Amino acid sequence: MKWIVGLGNPGPNYDKTRHNIGFMALDELAARHSMEIRQNKCKALIGEGHIGGTKVALIKPMTYMNLSGESVRAYMDYYKVPLEDLIVVYDDMDTEIGKIRLRYQGSAGGHNGIKSIIQHTGTQVFNRVRMGISRPNPGYPIVDYVLSPFPKQEHELLKKSIEDACDALEYSLSHTFEQTMAKFNR
Asked: What is the pLDDT of residues 40-84, one digit of tens each?
């Protein structure tokens, strides 16, 4: 079984914010495959189903971004799933809006959700789909930026990155993550 964790913050105040692009990608993936992400377990909302013959769990931590690792650890311990089968989908300011970047290891790069996952799993080695949100203008507070909604002029780029992330996630279910990186890291 593969498990895909989309990072974001719970609640309607955060629904359309840059920090919730991981949730947005999981919602799109669930819609593509008629899955519902609503089972409340392991400090998360979970949806389970099959994508192309592979059993998949879609997980949205409900711990708030900075504590995402608590949910990842709880799911890992409860279901005894290996980290090799994990893919984390999240926002990345060092990637342009509309672009995605895949990695299989690395530091948190200042992202508190990833920092929490590293802390709770004890490793920096896990598959990631980084979805670009670009950096704010100099002097603009980072917290305000990531918690702000995407402006209308970025909606097409947002839609493209969500579609690309879902395509990459689907592809990764029947290919190695290295093959997926080679195909989607353009």
From this structure: 999 999 999 999 999 999 999 999 999 999 999 999 999 999 999
Active site residue 19: yes
Total domains, the chain: 1
Q: What pLDDT digit, counting tens, does each position of 82-107 carry?
A: 999 999 999 999 999 999 999 999 99
Closest CA to 24 of 58, 69, 70, 66: 58
CB 108 within 8 A of CB 121: no
CATH number, domain of 119, equals 3.40.50.1470
Range of the domain at 139: 2-184
Note if the pTM is more than 0.90. yes
Contact 51, 168 (CB under 8 A): no
Residue tagged active-site, from 19, 111, 120, 175: 19
